[in-house]
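INTERNAL AUDIT FORM
Audit reference: QA-55
Scope: verify that the stored structure record matches its stored sequence.
Auditor: D.O.
Record contents follow.
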Amino acid sequence: MGVRSVSSLIRSIAGLAVGALALSGCGSSLDQSGGGSSGSDVKVGLLVPLSGVYAPLGEDMRNGFQLYLDQHGGKLGGRTVKLVTADEGEGPQTGVPAAQKLVTQDQVTTVVGVVNSATVLGMRDFFHESKKPLLVANAGADAITGARKSEYIWRTSFSNGKVSGALGPEVAKDVKGKVYLIAPDYAAGREMVAGFRKAFEAAGGKVAGEKYTPFGKTQDFQPYLSTIRASDAKAVYTFYSGAEAVSFVKQYKQFGLAGKTPLYGPGFLTEGGVLAAQGQTAVGVKTSLHYSTELDNPRNKEFVDGYRKKFNEPPTVFAVQAYDAAAVLDKALAKASGTGGEELVKALGGVGPIDSPRGQWSFDADHNVQQKFYLREVKSSGGTFVNAVIGDLG
């Protein structure tokens, strides 16, 4: 979520809680297609939230994918792209039918996107049986590249257990005492806690308590913060995103816990428009994530500059994940002998490393992302707040 998305975020909080500047692909150092002769057009479905509480994430993802297209002359793998965008909405009841329409009526070659974990699990069988490739550019459900993996589903984002587990050993090393765990009561919340707890306890960490709050319904965290303060916890690990992340971090500061009891979590706790809304109250919060605008590498500097020029705001991890999905398709379509599902899946298996703004990454045997995670800390910088990179979590 960027600056333009903050107003959307604030409206979401009140209720409950994505052209003109085309960049030449020939001159961009971010070009990864490796050439590829010109071919027929290819129709790509972009399935992201355009309405509801997740709309700011969908906007960022649409921006990221579009930026890559603009930098490469509107082509992927030498083929002119016809982009068909559909609204995922807030869950499976809207997202699954939208995905089915993209494939059966719009006749897209592949679908990119999906924010919600429950939505991607709900459409897994449809894509597997239809033999249409799905590139998941956000949803972190562990099972989609685990117990319910499919040769037709690939992920350019993260899995819940890995992004949270990366922080476990670091917290076990830094905190001299027990840690309290708190998250919303739904699949992603429980997977984020489980991934952290497994790695944290394996590194010798001790848990002071574990609590799950009603998902999407909790605005007053005082009862939970009182419990934390009364415990013997020396730090807190939490996963919240969107409106709940804003409320939790602000109330954590107001309740007097910030500064005395360090707060840790996955990077979604302080990402994009969430951080803009949290402001000073988030300073000092430490998170694990596979991206930050502050990463010091040439790819990221060029990406951030291009994104700011086009959208007048900084990029987010959601934008990067969709940008990289376009990079993957660029390489795969250049290699594929055709645009059928089986041909494209075979090409996806041979795309090799992706030179991304987040750092180089590649697919593992389960089509999940093999990538580096970074330790970030919210700091004040030039009148704004950033997720400064202070370490490498491997």
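Auditor finding: record pair retrieved intact. Residues 374 and 392 are 5 Å apart (CA to CA).
Action required: none
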